[in-house]
Amino acid sequence: MAITHTETVSDLIVLNDGTDVVSQVSIKTVSVDDSNPSKLTKTNYDTYFVDSSGGTSAAGFVAYGSLSETVVKGWIADELAASNTKTNAEAWIESKKNPPAPPEVNKTLPW
Questions:
Q1: What is the mean pLDDT of each successive set of 10 residues along the chain, which is 111 residues long?
Q2: Can you say whether the dihedral through the CA atoms of 78, 82, 87, 89 is positive or negative?
Q3: 23, 28, 80, 99 - which has most CB atoms within 10 Å?
């Protein structure tokens, strides 16, 4: 059974100075185990900060109206790669598939 992860840009926050320079990117990550997608799906939302200090003069600046999801994800590629979101989702899915034994149980009285 394979777990797949889909990352999509869910929101962009821009500076409120009329330049529409992106300062934050929200990513929605959906992790799905194909053995039982209806019960083994985990959705996470993470926010990443973008260096907006150069404003519209920054090298490689792309106007808001010309942005694509690929460009935006490229800005935060290192942070996405270093994120524990996928690892944590996989652990959650595994715990649902194979729950650990409880450390204590209620037992009927011996008399």
A1: 94 94 97 95 97 88 95 96 96 93 93 94
A2: negative
A3: 80
